[in-house]
Amino acid sequence: RDMGAAYGVGLILIYLLVVAQFGSYLTPLIIMAPIPLTIIGVMPGHALLGAQYTATSMIGMIALAGIIVRNSILLVDFIHLQVADGVPFRQAIVQSAITRAQPILLTGLAAMLGAFFILDDPIFNGLAISLIFGIGVSTVLTLVLIPTLYYAAYQRGFESSSSPT
């Protein structure tokens, strides 16, 4: 129960930090949209390996939130840079996903490989499972979901002006 509260507080703090970074209330919601979708990887991962969902699993979920936000910020920031350089909005979104895909995939793979070393530990098993399966699913979803949501949210604004709010 306390871990759930910590997770909620962590999400609120992440939201506030991203609001401060981008000066928008909508952009952080887009950036954080893939966070609940980590359950698509984490829960089946635990079931597949026959592991209980433990407190360390929840710690892994908290870590996943930070990893997802970092990946999402990389995409959104690259979109902003491209648009500032005069690239059309739609092209900037596609280019951000293409350009940032390799670094995002490689860092996700590195984190997953690192988690394999604690997979056999009885205490940190849940953490490892959450990280391995959560990063695997969330990395792919982030590369698809963030550009799609960003385009849907700001398409009209870019048709009439040059920067999102």
Rg calculated over all Cα atoms: 17 Å
Helices, by number, come to: 6
| Level-1 CATH class name | Mainly Alpha
Shape: elongated
Largest pleated sheet? none
User: CATH topology, anyone?
Assistant: Multidrug efflux transporter AcrB transmembrane fold
- Assign the CATH superfamily: Multidrug efflux transporter AcrB transmembrane domain
Ends apart, CA distance between termini: 36 Å
Proportion in helices: over 70%
Mean pLDDT: 91
Strand content: under 5%
Tally of strands: 0
CATH architecture tag = Up-down Bundle
- Unreliable parts: none
Structural class: mainly alpha
H/E series, N to C?
Answer: HHHHHH
What this model shows, in words?
With 165 residues, the protein is mainly α. It has a single domain (2-160), classed as Multidrug efflux transporter AcrB transmembrane fold (Up-down Bundle), CATH 1.20.1640. Helix content is 81%, strand content 0%. It is built from 6 helices and no strands. α1 packs across α2 and α5 (89-116) packs antiparallel against α6 (125-160). The longest helix has 36 residues, at 125-160. It starts with a helix and ends in a 5-residue tail after the last helix. The mean pLDDT is 91.
